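Form 7-S
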Amino acid sequence: MIKVVLVEDEPLFRADISQILETYFKDVISIVGIGYNMISGIKEITTHRPNLVLLDINLGDGTGFELLEKIENQDFALIFITGYDKHAIQAIKIGALDYIMKPINEEEFIQGIQKAIASITSRNSLPDSRIIASQFYSEKYIEKIVVSTSDAMHVLQQEDIYYCAADGNYTKFFTVSGTIMVARTLKFYDAVFDQSHFIRCHRSYVVNRNHVQRYDKSGFLILTNNIQIPISSRKKNEVLKTLFG
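Output:
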């Protein structure tokens, strides 16, 4: 379980963030501490030694940057959450994995958390957050996605996924290594995937663009594993233009 400390001075945003994490990541993430200002944030981080810190920049009694200066061992991944884009460059320079603007866009927030999970779980131990950032922005980390089943967490290379199919409130991942059933909707993963690699071709299917071999005029995409995936009539023009120009 990944330990998270949230440092946010606005009650509404604390509630929103906590709800999203509980809804989508309850099997992967545990909020072990919540800081309401800079002083309490320092205490929560020092006490709980989290894997991931979600940090507001303007905290009333100080800033998120000042908070970090007072933390000696920054052995955690870091995501900034703020209403001011003027701090973006500074946030990136000090090693933030992501920089999420308020008001929070749920899909962007989910993507940021997924990227952090992939970065954290891909290593046995966490180095300094600055090192995490430099590794995260390399291609190999961006292309990973974490999925959780009842008995395991799977770190998948996005390039190894042929396609995903909706099955009620579940999603089936069809990969080069086999099939994985996950208790999350296809809509959730459609928001998480790298959109330069995946495309929603049907309400029930998301396909990896790199595994599309050809389009059959009967209305199907033929993948590299010879599976046929239908294209909905509503999405046909958009999908064909995206895939074949």
